[in-house]
């Protein structure tokens, strides 16, 4: 009897040790997918920067962010999630939706945009559009980007969505898509309104999204231009962002001012391979605003470098497709990937790995998550990027499956 009790006790202890281990193994059949869908990754603060939390930047601002535009890594932040009025920085979202419409083939730069009485009635900064006046979309973008035209913003919004109200809904939908959780828009130009707010963090996100259209800097980076040329109403445009003239490498993006918001700026500059975004809200005056953004740029360019990791179009791996019309799915980089490092750090210690399941069952939709790219600096993971399917793969019909089975039986390549 004692032997039987001893035997049962041993078996029970053995089972308790084996079962958790077996469960753990089965959980690893599919690689972990944490971080998938976080395209911008802007919530991630650079590990190396955490040791420099005492750096003094944007001291006079109410809120500020310094971001690497390519990787979305936050270099510096101050009250970055405070919900504040953005003034005309709102127009970054207006320009972003305009560029989206051009990308999707809904608009062309040469399309005519007509001015409604409502658009013409906008106060504040404007290009003095008259009711019924027409300009090309390109001219309207100049008026928005350089002169901060409230009237031009509404005219373009009405062209895209039919009304400013419908366009504002698009703005809020896009904000949600970008992960701008501190944001709610009420209008398309940033004129004072209740419940119209965003944060420095969210402004950096939409600025990063706008810079995915490099051609926008043709407008945001120009210091001066003209509208209504060859007419008696020739209008001189001078960029409200003076850094595009006085700071080497600066080519955008948007200023803002109201008595409530004070002096605001989302600026971008590029030197060598590094592009950064600096956002300040609530500065006391223009001079302080520009000086503090320049200091943020100086800090970024002095301390950091951007290391190219993968070029657009480079192959990064493949995934087998179970019961699909294609037996495998080749994964190529949809864009260039770069990683931010401190100057002096060894570049050869930066590497990446593709984390994805070995196989996925068909059907596969275009844009479906396949896994992620994990970037390492030495042995430490510093960044993650989602990987999505660039094409759809339909489920294989019976004839395709029959041929595939026969080819395997007789060692014949498909």
From TrEMBL:
<feature type="domain" description="Peptidase S11 D-Ala-D-Ala carboxypeptidase A C-terminal">
    <location>
        <begin position="304"/>
        <end position="395"/>
    </location>
</feature>
<dbReference type="GO" id="GO:0006508">
    <property type="term" value="P:proteolysis"/>
</dbReference>
<comment type="similarity">
    <text>Belongs to the peptidase S11 family.</text>
</comment>
<feature type="active site" description="Acyl-ester intermediate">
    <location>
        <position position="88"/>
    </location>
</feature>
<dbReference type="Pfam" id="PF00768">
    <property type="entry name" value="Peptidase_S11"/>
</dbReference>
<keyword id="KW-0573">Peptidoglycan synthesis</keyword>
<protein>
    <recommendedName>
        <fullName>serine-type D-Ala-D-Ala carboxypeptidase</fullName>
        <ecNumber>3.4.16.4</ecNumber>
    </recommendedName>
</protein>
<dbReference type="InterPro" id="IPR015956">
    <property type="entry name" value="Peniciliin-bd_prot_C_sf"/>
</dbReference>
<comment type="function">
    <text>Removes C-terminal D-alanyl residues from sugar-peptide cell wall precursors.</text>
</comment>
<feature type="binding site">
    <location>
        <position position="254"/>
    </location>
    <ligand>
        <name>substrate</name>
    </ligand>
</feature>
<dbReference type="GO" id="GO:0009252">
    <property type="term" value="P:peptidoglycan biosynthetic process"/>
</dbReference>
<dbReference type="GO" id="GO:0071555">
    <property type="term" value="P:cell wall organization"/>
</dbReference>
<feature type="active site" description="Proton acceptor">
    <location>
        <position position="91"/>
    </location>
</feature>
<feature type="signal peptide">
    <location>
        <begin position="1"/>
        <end position="23"/>
    </location>
</feature>
<dbReference type="InterPro" id="IPR012907">
    <property type="entry name" value="Peptidase_S11_C"/>
</dbReference>
<keyword id="KW-0732">Signal</keyword>
<dbReference type="GO" id="GO:0009002">
    <property type="term" value="F:serine-type D-Ala-D-Ala carboxypeptidase activity"/>
</dbReference>
<keyword id="KW-0121">Carboxypeptidase</keyword>
<comment type="pathway">
    <text>Cell wall biogenesis; peptidoglycan biosynthesis.</text>
</comment>
<keyword id="KW-0133">Cell shape</keyword>
<dbReference type="InterPro" id="IPR001967">
    <property type="entry name" value="Peptidase_S11_N"/>
</dbReference>
<dbReference type="InterPro" id="IPR012338">
    <property type="entry name" value="Beta-lactam/transpept-like"/>
</dbReference>
<dbReference type="InterPro" id="IPR037167">
    <property type="entry name" value="Peptidase_S11_C_sf"/>
</dbReference>
<keyword id="KW-0645">Protease</keyword>
<keyword id="KW-0378">Hydrolase</keyword>
<dbReference type="GO" id="GO:0008360">
    <property type="term" value="P:regulation of cell shape"/>
</dbReference>
<dbReference type="Pfam" id="PF07943">
    <property type="entry name" value="PBP5_C"/>
</dbReference>
<dbReference type="InterPro" id="IPR018044">
    <property type="entry name" value="Peptidase_S11"/>
</dbReference>
<feature type="active site">
    <location>
        <position position="148"/>
    </location>
</feature>
<keyword id="KW-0961">Cell wall biogenesis/degradation</keyword>
């Amino acid at each position: 009897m004692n032997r039987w009790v001893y035997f049962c006790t041993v078996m029970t202890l053995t089972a308790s040790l084996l079962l958790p281990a077996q469960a753990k193994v089965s959980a690893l059949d599919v690689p972990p997918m944490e971080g998938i869908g976080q395209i911008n990754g802007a919530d991630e603060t650079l590990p190396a920067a955490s040791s420099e939390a005492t750096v003094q930047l944007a001291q006079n601002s109410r809120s500020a962010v310094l971001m690497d535009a390519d990787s979305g890594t936050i270099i510096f932040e101050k009250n970055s999630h405070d919900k504040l009025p953005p003034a005309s920085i709102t127009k970054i979202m207006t320009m972003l939706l305009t560029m989206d419409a051009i990308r999707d083939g809904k608009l062309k730069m040469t399309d005519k945009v007509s001015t409604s009485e409502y658009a013409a009635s906008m106060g504040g900064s404007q290009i003095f559009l008259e009711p019924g006046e027409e300009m090309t979309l390109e001219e309207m973008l100049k008026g928005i980007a350089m002169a901060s035209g409230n009237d031009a913003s509404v005219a373009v919004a009405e062209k895209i969505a039919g009304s400013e109200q419908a366009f504002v809904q698009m703005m809020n939908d896009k904000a949600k898509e970008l992960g701008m959780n501190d944001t709610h828009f009420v209008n398309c130009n940033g004129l004072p309104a209740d419940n119209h707010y965003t944060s420095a963090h969210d402004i950096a996100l939409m600025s990063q999204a706008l810079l995915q259209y490099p051609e926008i800097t043709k407008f945001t980076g120009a210091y001066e231009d003209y509208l209504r040329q060859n007419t008696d109403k020739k209008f001189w445009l001078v960029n409200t962002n003076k850094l595009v003239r006085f700071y080497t490498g600066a080519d955008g993006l948007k200023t803002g001012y109201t008595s409530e918001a004070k002096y605001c700026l989302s600026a971008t500059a590029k030197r060598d391979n590094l592009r950064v975004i600096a956002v300040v809200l609530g500065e006391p005056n223009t001079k302080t605003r520009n000086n503090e953004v320049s200091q943020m740029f100086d800090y970024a360019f002095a301390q950091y470098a951007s290391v190219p990791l993968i070029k657009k179009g480079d192959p990064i791996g493949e995934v087998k497709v179970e019961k699909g019309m294609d037996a495998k799915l080749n994964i190529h980089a949809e864009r260039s990937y770069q990683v931010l490092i401190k100057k002096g750090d060894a570049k050869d210690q930066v590497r990446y790995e593709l984390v994805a399941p070995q196989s996925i069952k068909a059907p596969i939709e275009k844009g479906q998550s396949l896994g992620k790219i994990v970037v390492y600096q030495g042995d430490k993971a510093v960044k993650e990027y989602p990987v999505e399917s660039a094409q759809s793969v339909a489920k294989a019909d019976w004839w395709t499956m029959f041929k595939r089975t026969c080819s395997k039986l007789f060692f014949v390549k498909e």
